[in-house]
TrEMBL record:
Gene3D superfamilies to which the protein is assigned, alphabetical: 2.40.30.130, Threonyl-trna Synthetase, Chain A, domain 2
InterPro entries the record matches: Alanyl-tRNA_Editing_Enzymes, Thr/Ala-tRNA-synth_IIc_edit, Transl_B-barrel_sf
Molecular functions (GO terms): alanine-tRNA ligase activity
Alphabetic keyword roster: Ligase
EC class: ligase
Protein name as annotated: Alanyl-tRNA synthetase
SUPFAM superfamilies the UniProt entry points to: ThrRS/AlaRS common domain, Translation proteins
E.C. numbers: 6.1.1.7
Length: 229
């Protein structure tokens, strides 16, 4: 059995665990561990950087088995692990927190956009590419001019800054269908498999350039970091 430990604690950096399975992925060796710290790429979030017994790996989700595979990284070989063998696992915590901050900020911006009456169309939480895209079911005259788009963006900035200043909690639970639902207090709830900050007060340097309108979509680019711990 494998437990996705990154769901329970975004901030867990290392652990002692055991090998759950071994094999090859596209000809590259992999190992799956019971207590899995490694978040794979998915849901608009990049994969963690991690190590198993000091060997760098890339986590990949195997959709057939449901396992998170720790695949040998950079052409290096993994040792001959055996099922049940004790191992130490570790993630690059600063990278994890950078991803978690961007993902959490993305949810917050989505909540602020919904408050404007907009509907989520797409998202991307990758560093340097982070953006939330909306559609506006009701025509919004502000979006027709540069000044109006800046006004609309400033409304988003105000809502985001207010929620961060209030340090609203970020929590999660499984619903009746087993889906993981992430909550930003009363502001926002959505199914999500990403990693998140403990609270909105953990977000820092949240920057929203003036939104753009392209092909009927409102694109809100953004950047964010995790405050120093």
């Amino acid at each position: 059995m494998q437990v996705p430990a990154y769901y329970a604690d975004t901030y867990e950096e290392q652990a002692q665990t055991r090998v759950a399975a071994i094999g090859e992925h596209d000809g590259t060796p992999w190992v799956a561990v019971e207590h899995c710290l490694f978040h794979p790429q998915g849901g608009g979030q990049p994969a963690d950087r991690g190590w198993v017994d000091g060997h760098e790996i890339v986590p990949v989700r195997d959709h057939d088995s449901g396992l998170i595979l720790a695949v040998a990284c950079g052409g290096t070989a993994l040792p001959d692990f055996s099922v049940g063998q004790p191992v130490e696992v570790r993630i690059d915590l600063p990278t994890r927190l950078a991803h978690a901050a961007l993902h959490t900020a993305g949810h917050l911006i989505e909540a602020a956009g919904r408050a404007q009456g907009w509907v989520l169309a797409a998202n991307n939480h990758f560093p340097g590419q982070a953006r939330i895209e909306f559609t506006a079911p009701t025509p919004d005259a502000r979006l027709d001019t540069p000044e109006g788009r800046e006004e609309a963006t400033e409304a988003l900035r105000t809502e985001v800054a207010k929620a961060i200043a209030e340090d609203l909690p970020v929590t999660w639970e499984n619903d009746a269908d087993g889906r993981r639902i992430v909550h930003l207090a009363h502001l926002h709830s959505a199914p999500c498999g990403g990693t998140h900050a403990r609270s909105l007060g953990d977000l820092a340097d949240v920057v929203l350039p003036t939104l753009k309108v392209k092909k009927g979509r409102l694109r809100v680019s953004y950047s964010a970091t995790h405050r120093e711990r």
